[in-house]
Amino acid sequence: MFYSHLKGHIEALLFANGNPVPADKLAQMLDIDAENVAALVAELKHDMAATDRGLTILDVAGGYQLCSKPELSPIIEKLVEVQEARMSLAAMETLAIIAFKQPVTKLEIEHIRGVKVDGVVNTLVERGLIKEVGRKEAIGRPILYGTTDDFLKCFGLASLDDLPDLAELLAVDNPDLPEHDE
Questions:
Q1: Membrane spanning segments where (predicted)?
Q2: pLDDT at residue 84 above 60?
Q3: For residue 103, is the peptide bond before it cis, meaning its omega torsion is within 30 degrees of 0?
Q4: Which CATH number fits domain 4-79: 1.10.10.10, 3.90.25.10, 2.40.50.100, 1.10.443.10?
């Protein structure tokens, strides 16, 4: 490939940033078009998969991110003893509602869950998993919530399109439920 000499540049940029970098941003920095960036990233992915290297490139949150290979997690865990911040069941339920129903208000979430969600929503905002995405055109103009790029990174999703189909999930979890349209 004509731009092969730029593979190292892409690898260095992804390493230095740490977060996902969109193809158009890489293209701008390298003064090439996004299609060539995608081709170079594909070559890098192939190079990294074909060897005993410890890194790979993932498509995450609309960009490319340099990550350690999942199969090396046991050795990385020995190096870094990180205490994971676990999420409560209430937080997971609320996050799932927001992910599948966004944009959504607190009142709509409370209607689905049947309990107040102020504290849980505040925690999810603090953790950067959800954010305010606007105001609903209704009395009081309540805040609408949606997920963030950190949500996508946390769950390894390239975009919200990668979420499973909610109807299929409901059918798997509750095979006796009658089919219905929302």
A1: none
A2: no
A3: yes
A4: 1.10.10.10
Amino acid (1-letter code) at residue 169 = L
Question: At residue 79, does pLDDT exceed 70?
Answer: no
% of the chain with per-residue pLDDT over 70: 87
